[in-house]
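Researcher: Quick test of sequence recovery. Tokens follow.
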């Protein structure tokens, strides 16, 4: 008999990897975590240092005391609603793993749509001898900028963020993915200080309306950086500013691609149309049918030095 109290008395004791998995899944289920089975497997992989395949071959093995202690430690972090990606120090974006911690927003699958749209616009130009310059505004972990660099070797990328701490994470991810030479990290306020010459401006800026902050899940509200989420009263404070600044940074016919929140694509399209210097303005929906990426082409002026 076990004398130590278990978090859930109905579940089996920790006498094998399998029972550890079941117990962890049960505890996560009871805590209301969305994907308890998946998360339990990831936590066990983390504490054993084994891939899922190896783990499944060892289901009957008794876990080491150190593994059990580590599992309890990670599980209690997760039960306090810390996002799993911060606990594991890893988030997957567009098939690549990025280091993340509480200094940066966790890359979201929705943002992969921005990568796809970018690829659609620029694939035809990839054989040009000239390098294309692209800027990612509000880069955070660097996931977007680094993905573009990895996917398109002809791109020369600048990535900016107002947070010095976020840029430290982005720098680590640039090294991890071997693009330190091609992604230049700059601390700054949106596009301020950047001169013309970019073929594209891409941005996943903070867009959560301040009043909706309280409704976010505790994982997001308590642990993710507010600076990366809070978009002011209507959520569009930073988006509006980047729409104002982008014409100065883009070449003639250069593209602006913005990720936006639910219900924001209409107002953002309107902002771009009213500015009078954008053409081909449109919204692309994500897999949930939410207007997620708004894009437009800078119609420019003759005085600009180069064009697409
Ligand atoms: N997609 C994030 C969320 O809903 C918000 C990201 C952002 O503000 N850019 O939590």
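Model:
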């Amino acid at each position: 008999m076990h004398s130590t109290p278990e978090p859930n008395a109905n579940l089996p004791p920790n006498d094998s990897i399998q029972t550890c998995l079941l117990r962890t899944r049960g505890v996560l289920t009871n805590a209301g975590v969305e994907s308890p089975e998946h998360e339990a497997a990831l936590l066990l992989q983390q504490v054993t240092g084994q891939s899922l395949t190896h783990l499944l071959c060892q289901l009957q093995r008794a876990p080491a005391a150190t593994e059990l202690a580590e599992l309890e430690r990670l599980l209690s972090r997760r039960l306090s609603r810390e996002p799993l990606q911060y606990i594991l120090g890893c988030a997957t974006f567009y098939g690549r793993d990025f280091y993340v911690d509480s200094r940066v927003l966790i890359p979201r699958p929705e943002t992969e749509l921005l990568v796809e749209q970018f690829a659609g616009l620029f694939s035809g130009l990839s054989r040009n001898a000239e390098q294309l310059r692209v800027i990612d505004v509000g880069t955070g972990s660097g996931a977007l900028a680094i993905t573009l660099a990895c996917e398109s070797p002809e791109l020369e990328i600048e990535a900016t963020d107002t947070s010095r701490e976020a840029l430290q994470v982005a720098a680590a991810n640039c090294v991890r993915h071997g693009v330190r030479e091609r992604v230049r990290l700059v601390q700054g306020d949106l596009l301020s200080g950047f001169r013309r010459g970019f073929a594209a401006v891409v941005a996943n800026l903070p867009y959560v309306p301040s009043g909706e902050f309280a409704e976010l899940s505790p994982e997001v509200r308590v642990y993710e950086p507010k600076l990366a989420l809070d978009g002011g009263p209507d959520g569009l404070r930073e988006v509006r500013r980047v729409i104002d600044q982008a014409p100065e940074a883009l070449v003639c016919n250069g593209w602006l691609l913005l990720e936006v929140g639910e219900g924001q694509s209409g107002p953002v399209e309107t902002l771009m149309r009213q500015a009078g210097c954008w053409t081909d303005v449109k919204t692309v929906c994500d897999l949930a049918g939410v207007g997620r990426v708004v894009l437009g082409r800078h119609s420019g002026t003759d005085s600009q030095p180069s064009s697409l």
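Residues 65-79 form the longest helix (15 residues).
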